[in-house]
Amino acid sequence: METRKLSFREAKVLASASLIFTTHTPVAAGHDYFSPGLIERYFSAYIQRLGISSSEFLGLGRQNPANASEDFCMTVLALRLASFSNGVSKLHGKSRGVCGATFGKGFRSRRSPSGM
Question: Are the C-beta atoms of 86 and 61 separated by less than 8 Å?
Answer without folding.
Answer: no
